[in-house]
Amino acid sequence: MAGVQLLALLSLAVAASSLSMGAQATTGPDARKVGVYELKLGDFSVKVTNWGARLMSVVLPDSKGNLADVVLGRDTLAEYFNDTSYFGPIAGRVAQRISRGRFVLDGKVYHLQRNDGKNTIHGGGTAFSKSAWTVKEYVGGGDSPYITLYYRSFDGEQGFPGSLDTYVTYRVSGPYTLGVHMNATARDRATPVNLLLHAYWNLGGHGEGIGRDVLGHTLRLHASRYAVLDAELLPSSGRVAPVAGTPLDFRAPTPIGARIRQVTGGKVVGYDANYIVDGEPGSMRPVAEVRDAASGRALELWANQATVQFYTGNWLNHTEGKGGEVYNQYAGFTLETMGYVDAVNHPEFPSQTLRPGQEYKHDMVFKFSF
Ligand SMILES: *[C@@H]1O[C@H](CO)[C@@H](O)[C@H](O)[C@H]1NC(C)=O
Ligand SMILES: *[C@@H]1O[C@H](CO)[C@@H](O)[C@H](O)[C@H]1NC(C)=O
Ligand SMILES: *[C@@H]1O[C@H](CO)[C@@H](O)[C@H](O)[C@H]1NC(C)=O
Predict the structure, then answer these.
(1) Burial, 31: exposed, middle or buried (Cβ in 10 Å; 0-12, 13-18, 19+)?
(2) What pLDDT digit, counting tens, does each position of 331-348 carry?
(3) What is the 102 CA–ligand 3 centroid distance (Å)?
(4) What is the total count of domains within the chain?
(5) Which residues pair with 45 in a beta bridge?
(6) From atom 4 of ligand 3, which residue's Cα is the shortest distance away?
(7) 81 pLDDT above the threshold of 80
(8) Is 336 designated active site?
(9) Domain with 81 in it: what CATH number?
């Protein structure tokens, strides 16, 4: 145990020295403990902060060799502390929406903090995405740079039962591959768990690219079915329907903007849809491929989760971003692999209950090319 703590201290010392290189300001909640960590392999660079275990940036070349950052976010940690757009965090303990902020587990009713109208979203107001995680291990260079972050969610946090140990590892490997590996164990009581990474992508990159929205990006989703969501973006009917014949059908590569005017993500026009990923949940399988013809950049996402929420940044609206850029509607998209939305209130969906002795395991792999 002492070894682990020492390692954490050493990691923080490394972070502190990288901060003194002038990259980031550190003011705000838990500033002394919060840092920015770079994972670098050649000209591929990924930055992560332990504030909300956030993915801050991914820099890679385009087809002409120009480097750019393809993740939406902010320039400084101080700005991330104010973030209300969920730029890049791990959301939990149960991400996405929970109807009326309530559920029943083992015969007991739990009430959560409601932070999305009458409902709870992304685990409540000040959960995983707005806390300082502990840096367990950090290796910034070499063949396979990585960082492992740890968060203990306490019994009763945002209303959830029992304490939970959560780890997230971001790992870079060649060529241009980013793995995100999450696990969790319930320490004392059963609890629902459903984590997700809420990163917005624009493969055009910052600089020239972000001025363009993502409507011209081509998307392919390995999903033949979707969970029907209502106006509150809840799967109230419990229905799963085929995408065939709907504007949600991305089984063949299709520009994101081709039919976007025909869909509403809740109260605004745009995608905020939950797809059932084809194949066997629990096994790594292809989820999505996205290509931006203008830059030549593409990403391929693999994951082991049952569903993926595809969101087109419908609520971005003169939102301050990096380098003085302003993000408007459709400036980025998310591909949030996860379990079924509101599974805690839908026995017809696969259970998200994690009991002591069981392991929650969520793996994502992004393969970039250009
Ligand atoms: C954070 O928000 C507060 C309140 O709106 C504002 O005064 C402050 O300037 C913001 N900080 C940053 C770094 O944007
Ligand atoms: C979760 O991941 C961490 C970090 O990689 C690892 O140390 C731990 O053993 C994992 N937990 C389980 C239950 O596998
Ligand atoms: C964007 O902001 C403008 C001005 O505040 C507002 O009129 C418009 O409804 C907003 N659009 C969305 C999608 O929120």
Answers:
(1) middle
(2) 999 999 999 999 999 999
(3) 31
(4) 1
(5) 40, 59
(6) 317
(7) yes
(8) yes
(9) 2.70.98.10
